[in-house]
Known about the structure:
This protein has helices at residues 8-32, 38-45, 49-55, 59-80, 88-96, 99-104, 108-116, 118-124, 126-141, 151-170, 176-191. By secondary structure, it is mainly alpha-helical.
Amino acid sequence: MAPKTDKRPAKRADAERTVTAVLDAALRSFASSPDATVTEIAKAAGVGRVTVYGHFDSLPAIVDALLIRSLAEADAGFAELDLESGTATGAVDRLLHAPWLLGRYQGLLAAATRHLGPEKVRQLHEQVFARIEAVIVRGRHRGEFRTDLPLPWVMASIYALAHAAAAEADAERLPRAEAADLLSTTLLGLLRDPAAGCPSEPVQMTP
């Protein structure tokens, strides 16, 4: 008698592929419009609404899962950057020019803010921004960055300006490369102590 075949692993793999397809489709859909609906996402994924709802109980659930996945990808990208060598100024510039910030996730921030609320979006960013904060703290300890401003205020300013740059790029009021350059220049101007001749590296300007 042939042994019974356990089909659960195959079903689980199918489910994972479907979830990936839905999230990929959501990312494309939000890039076209932050107002994308479940119907539009399902069509882009090549599945039916019933299939989508079999994995996600609402549009906010899709947005939540997509933002978590996107921020995990961003954090992995940050982990590959060399943030320890050179000046903190150079490290900040590399972080702000990382492709995830103003490139791949077009429209996602607007969709996430709309469906999840700004507080939830900020909370989900905490792990990614912890890497930025570590660089800021290093620069403050080394005398590169000003210490007269409270660190929480500095981080709130970075968060707000980064999202403003993303919104300008998403709305096509600024080319993405220019938005990254302006973001880096603006934030480094905020971080540096105007009264000190801080050592610095040239800010990366996209050709």
